[in-house]
User: What shape does this take?
Amino acid sequence: MIHVPAPDPFTVFGLPRSLDVDERTLEARYLRLSRECHPDLHRASDTGDCIAVLQRSAEINDAWQVLRDPWRRARALLELLSPGVLDRTKKLDPAFLDEALELAEQVATAGAASAPALRARLQAALADDFAAVRADLQRGDHEAAARRLHASHYHRKALADLEAKS
Amino acid sequence: MSAPPTAPPRLVVGIDLGTTNSLAAIRAGKVARVLRDRDGEALVPSVVCFHPDGRTLVGREAKRLRLTCPDRTVFSVKRLIGRSAAEVGAEAARLPYPVVAGERGLPRIRIGDATLSPEAISARILQQVKANAELALGQPVAAAVITVPAWFDDAQRQATKDAAALAGLDCLRILNEPTAAALAYGIDGSKDGTVLVYDLGGGTFDVSILRIDDGVFRVLATAGDTHLGGDDFDLLLADRILAALPGGGKAVDPFVLQAVRSAAEGLKIRLSDAVEAELTLDLGPRGTASLRVTRAEFEAAIAPLVQRTLDCVQRAVRDAGLRLDQIDETVLVGGSTRVPLVRERLRALLGRPPHTEVDPDLAVALGAAIQADVLAGNDRSLLLLDVIPLSLGIETLGGAVQKLILRNSTIPTSVTEEFSTGVDDQTAVELSIYQGERELARDCRLLGTFRLRGIPPLPAGLPRIAVTFLVDADGVLRVHAREQRTGVEAGIQVVPTYGLSREEVRAMMLDSIEHAQADYAAREAIELRNKAEAMVRGAQRALALAELPPDQTYAVHKAVKALERLLAGPTDAAALRAGCDAVTQATATIADDVISAAVTRALREEEGR
Assistant: This one.
């Protein structure tokens, strides 16, 4: 099974291809596009091409889910700038895998006392990851950005697991 | 020249099809109102009685006959719709009317010699609501927006749509109940902000978090339990009453069950106002139960259930990416939110009393009427953006589920994946679709099997079939497929696991009584054989790929061999099904043994990213 990429979310939203997006602009545009295309508001005038209306509406919703999440936005951007780069860089540095496993262990054993410090650490690590991805992109080093994105996945996962525990 | 004819405004009503009560509402000129019958009653009890004299009664009249015809009076059918007999087994045992396993293991209600589907019962309720609405409006009603719990899965939604079709209603939209309630609450335009809707009905619990922003109602997250409601509070009290009967209520007949449940419901309602209530239930020759229940005792009994709802609330808030203190308002929906403990615990959790201006019994129908008005094209200022409550995925080798669409994705939403063939000249591929959050297929609900046919015969791996999974605005899945090289649209045959098949709906709508039972059995047998054969091939391939030491794969080899032997003989559906289950179980165990759960997860996520 191979994932077929959806239409480029930046184009769907008519936004420039950029890692940083103004959240207010994004949300306003999402609501405007939804009003223009949502099947609910086009039902009465709908002359039959129901699937096309649904598909367009789905594209807008799916692009919104990608663009509003900085990490998914970064992945989409990288894949656009350098198709296949995420696949090519999948192999993780073993040292990093060790760190990831250790983090998972810490999350699994974290109690009420140690959770806040661990949370702060993970949040800081994620901020570092994102800054590094931004710097790599600015330098045009897509491979480095992709590797860092892959690595950040374990920080996000650990943070999500930690939140799910509380 | 006369003016061009304008179509008269189409009448679309909103219908709240509840576990306990149902009702309709309409919105005309920006004002939504519930529709009442001749006696001024809006609520139609969701009860259908098949009287021995041949009459079918629905609503209040049916409810009154609960004790006269206990085994022919059907209620709480919403708990059965779109589910399997096995899933509803435990609670069906507590119902006074007989629920049996019918074709494909689906629950059927036995009334005398007839068996009825839950869809058919729901259709009778919808017909009554429709008739009341037509009487109140003085004109025919052909279309409706019908509400369901947000937590209903694809099968339960589809079954509700089928019930509407059987009742002669064009169901324009399946709308989530908490979303409907939020519409009723936020319609006046002064309620912009973040709202939590807590909907505890007779049989289901939902919680949804919405952002209301200038006419746009956007659901951020939803969570719930299709198996938790006021009925469960009643059952706890019913246990107390049964225990107070002579013999501890051991020998229960339908009459006693009905009487005890009615008494339990009354007791619950009284305990909402009083701190203690007394009950004397005289069942004539079956004995008398006398008991006194204090509110404190009742609350102690229901506290674990209330806690379950609060866990859902916290999960929904987390899924929405919010903290509890970011919720601006809480809206209560459903009769069971009248229970004081529920309000008290919610207030403690959210730090403020819930909003109580919207009538918890009417809010859902009023909201449905508002959405009906939007869909009729009368109001373009409002827009609802809802989400899918449970993730959708397909089964991959080894019994795992690969998620295609994640829960809380705004609908409509779609994803396209490309599949190929495993054998030369293969012209069909089968995909099993699951809904749920767990990682193994056996822990999720199998919604159905999609068979892609008409693939051009090509060497294995060459066909490229793009399959698009699209969840529409009803939260119902649609699948279409296309072979990429030839552009051939692959035909898709849907074999739903639950609910009615398309043929069944057609057949019932045509009122054809002749049911080709034998055809069904034959089709089921063929499908089962195909599945078993595919499983044998798949498991053998997996064994070859995995290169595991023989002691670890012994169980798999054994299960595969057993299944092969079954396939060599004449088809025995039950044995084949058991054989397939055994293979699934055996393959799942080796996956567990070989790789620890954490690594499996990591690998899967690597793939999914």
User: Anything to note?
Assistant: Residues 230-302 of chain B form a domain with the Actin; Chain A, domain 4 fold (CATH 3.90.640.10).
